[in-house]
Amino acid sequence: MTYTIKGLKTWDTHDGGGWQVSLYANGKRIAEVTQRGHGGPLWWEFKPVDAHALVAFGASQGVSDFLDGNFVKFDTDADSALCEMVDDLEHKREMKRWCKTKVVFRFPQDEEGKYRTIKCAHYTESVRRKMVERYGPDVIIMNKVVTTAEEDAIVQSACDRANASGDGMTDDDIQTLTDDLNALNGIAG
Q1: Where are the domains positioned within the chain?
Q2: DSSP 30
Q3: What is the percentage of the chain residues whose pLDDT exceeds 70?
Q4: What is this structure's pTM?
């Protein structure tokens, strides 16, 4: 089974913060899990019909007696696994937010989880190339390349020409595509 979480909600408390998520097994919601933010174990809410899926989640974390009737037993392995899933989701959200206005990067020798940023409105292939040119090929860039409509149109046109010729993309087609994209981004070939 594949376990995922969705619908993360967070809030501040006097002990730090709390959160609530929905736990899914193979795309079907099986539980609502809450960290109330006041100390203590997670709060698991589920329907009895989903108990078997919840037991399977516990078993996937090495817990054989996850349920006691209609209650989830306190278990640090299952709680820790779910907390890791929440941490991963929060990290992805934060990274997505940062990448909207910054280039987010790190070097292999940087401490895990630490990132450097450069303010940048749109991360494109030309920005990526300049980053690699300046910082070297080992730079780890977290942004996904965002293409503009013009870049998409140039690539689509090249693909259409290759499909129409029946020969696929030749070396000349690839060079022409590269030159067109470089010209659009103001890069000398």
Answers
A1: 3-94, 100-141, 149-184
A2: E
A3: 81
A4: 0.58
